[in-house]
Design goal:
The protein has 2 domains: 2-19 and 433-452, no CATH class; 35-426, Glycosidases (TIM Barrel, Alpha-Beta Barrel), CATH 3.20.20.80. The protein has 15 helices and 13 strands. It has helices at 2-18, 22-31, 73-86, 103-111, 132-135, 138-151, 176-192, 211-218, 248-254, 278-282, 285-288, 321-332, 370-378, 416-426, 434-452; strands at 37-40, 43-46, 49-51, 53-57, 90-93, 115-119, 157-164, 200-204, 229-234, 262-267, 291-296, 309-313, 316-319. Helix 2 (22-31) runs parallel beside helix 4 (103-111). The radius of gyration is 24 Å and the shape is globular. The relative contact order is 0.18.
Length: 453
């Protein structure tokens, strides 16, 4: 009887080891729902099909009510229902808690075919445009890397923003090398930790005097220093308007030979009644050779009259006239077919020369702080979340200038935790536990045999 009990216990244990956990089943289900987005030339692709961002900016409560909108399954479910009504495929989130679990919402988004473009900064952990050198430090980068860790394994994480409107006039262009250094560091961390190649880029302010210089700068230099895409916030189309009245035709001409994807990280001027007439232009062949879509600002009303909906409670919202207008605009504008005339070869830009509107001397970037460089091998560890002390004057700053190519991935971490993450990033299938179960059974049978001798 003892022998039977031992064998029964071993069999039960083996069965428990072989069965995937609920989280693994959830992640595997999400993996089958979406295909990770890649970059080819100056366009995004979903497998072999050109992918255009059709989405909204999503941060209920705004910057005054710092909260993670995808850490709560209830509100996330409420809003996904509205996203599906709009017919969108992407949301942008400006702030998340990198200590929270996002499985439920990220997988619910994936099941709805919706991707995430994520800002890795937060109000307490960001570059200070006035003192960029002091704010570019190890504590800041550790927070960013922890956020990457929290989202890299979801197949519907489309891209990361390294910054948002850090340069907002001519006088702040001197912060550009630090924005570019952060972008370089993020790309190196993703590669060094063995994650899939998730695109990293910058969301720029639409400053006429240096918009093109900023785009050139983010796409010039050695391969490790270049962004994977460039985005900017554009409110120049105010209904009633047109492709030419808005000046969008000139922007298309300006960026015609740009080598990486461009999209609008915010759009939707509300000077007049919004009809979202620009949607028809944005997804028309007059723009698709250069632009890869955009994100409407913004989903929920926060007191600035940009909200598409008003949130009433954790379970309900009221759709406003702008929601209905955008819904109609998307419904009337089918996703483009074919490759949209994209530039398949891509290519680097030349770095802009210093001028009265571009205060950057030379092409060199600050070297990554030594403490942050160590995280490439060890991993970021636990992030500070939304309650951390902040980073802008935390010390551990850069002490030199980087050499070109220093941000290249020379070795991929092979630690067990990263290997598991990497496997998840590639397939997100449940871990095959059968070898573990077999080993457990063999050991058990050996023990039982010894006791019977």
């Amino acid at each position: 009887m003892k022998t039977f009990s031992t064998f029964a216990a071993l069999a039960a244990a083996a069965s428990a080891f072989a069965a995937p956990s609920p989280r693994e089943e959830l992640v595997a289900k999400a993996a089958s729902s979406v295909t990770p987005i890649t970059v080819k030339g100056n366009a995004f692709f979903q497998g072999s099909n050109r992918f255009y961002i059709r989405g909204v900016d999503y941060q209920p409560g705004g910057s005054s009510d710092l909260a993670d909108p995808i850490a709560d399954q209830g509100s996330c479910s409420r809003d996904i229902a509205e996203f599906k009504k709009l017919g969108i495929n992407t949301i942008r989130i400006y702030t998340v808690d990198n200590t929270a679990n996002h499985d439920a919402c990220m997988n619910a988004l994936a099941a709805a075919g919706i991707y995430l473009v994520l800002d890795v900064n937060s109000p307490k952990y960001s570059l200070n445009r006035a003192t960029p050198h002091a704010s570019y430090n190890t504590v800041y980068l550790q927070n960013i890397f922890a956020t990457i860790d929290a989202f890299a394994n979801y197949p519907n994480t489309l891209a990361f923003f390294s910054g948002n409107e850090v340069i907002n006039d001519d006088s702040t262009t001197s912060a550009a090398p630090y924005v570019k250094a952060v972008t370089r560091d993020m790309r190196q961390y993703i590669g060094s930790r063995g994650y899939r190649k998730i695109p990293v880029g910058y969301s720029a302010a639409d400053v006429d005097s240096n918009r093109y210089e900023m785009a050139e700068y983010m796409n010039c230099g050695s391969d490790d220093e270049r962004s994977d895409f460039f985005a900017f916030n554009d409110y120049s189309w105010c209904d009633p308007s047109s492709f030419t009245i808005s000046g969008w035709d000139q922007k298309v001409k300006t960026f015609t030979n740009y080598g990486v994807p461009i999209f609008l990280s915010e759009y939707g001027c509300n000077t007049n009644t919004r009809k979202f007439e620009e949607v028809a232009a944005l997804y028309n062949t007059e723009m698709t050779s250069v632009y890869s879509g955009g994100l409407v600002y913004e989903y929920s009303e926060t007191g600035n009259n940009y909200g598409l909906v008003t949130i009433n409670s954790p379970t309900s919202v009221t759709e406003g006239p702008d929601f209905l207008a955008l819904q109609s605009a998307f419904k009337a504008t089918a996703p483009p077919t074919g490759d949209g005339g994209y530039n398949s070869t891509g290519g680097a830009s030349g770095c802009p020369a210093q001028s009265s509107t571009w205060n950057v001397t030379g092409d060199a970037l600050p070297a990554i702080p030594s403490g942050a460089a160590q995280l490439m091998k060890s991993g970021a560890g636990k992030g500070p979340g939304l309650t951390g002390a902040g980073s802008q004057n935390a010390g551990g700053i850069s002490t030199g200038t980087a050499t070109a190519g220093s941000g290249s991935v020379t070795a991929v971490s092979t630690s067990s935790s990263t290997a598991t993450k990497n496997a998840g990033a590639a397939t997100l299938a449940p871990l095959d536990k059968s070898p573990i179960a077999v080993a457990f059974l063999v050991a058990g049978f050996t023990f039982v045999g010894a006791t019977l001798l």
